[in-house]
Amino acid sequence: MKKIISFLLIFAFGLSSCEKDDICDPDTPTTPRLVITFYDINNSTLRKRVNNLRVTGKDQAQSIVFNKTATDDTKYLTSGDSIAIPLRTDADTTTYTFINNYGSSNASLVNSDEINFVYSRQNSYVSRACGFKTIFNLSAFQRTDPTGDGVWMQDIFIINPNIEYENETHVKVFF
Q1: Cβ distance 135 to 124 under 8 Å?
Q2: Three-state SS for 4?
Q3: 76, burial (CB in 10 Å: exposed 0-12, middle 13-18, buried 19+)
Q4: The dihedral of CA 144, 149, 154, 158: what is its sign?
Q5: For the chain, which has fewer Cβ within 10 Å, the N-terminal or C-terminal residue?
Q6: In the chain, what is the straight-line distance between the N-terminal and C-terminal CA atoms, in Å?
Q7: Sequence-ordered list of residues with C-beta below 8 angstroms from that of 147, at least 6 positions apart, any chain
């Protein structure tokens, strides 16, 4: 009888050591992505959809996956008025190539711009299960035209430099 009671006590203590934060809740905010919203250059209050946008990080083998259910090259394409892209947590800069109208049969419609985002980083403790997240403070960007086809992003503005959440626009792009 004593062995059973001892076993139950040890078992109970073992269960009590498990806390709810041993598992990271999927709804817990982690390292946020940079949210870019696209606007019409002729009407600055009107959002504008990009067509078949492909975003590739510098020196990356694959582009950002926007459509996880696709099995072909279309998984890298998006046609919306805003996107969320990750920033590097191991460096103070991230460079992306934004290709508008990717895969178009009309080569004159395909246009590439490259943007180098410059920021500072701060690690913030979330919980024991989730660990740390990185918060970014966007300080500058530099746009280039890598293919010489002219820039399609005519104006770019940093609206919210503090990248702590993904529910707000950080950068506005006018085209």
Answers
A1: yes
A2: helix
A3: buried
A4: negative
A5: N
A6: 79
A7: 111, 112
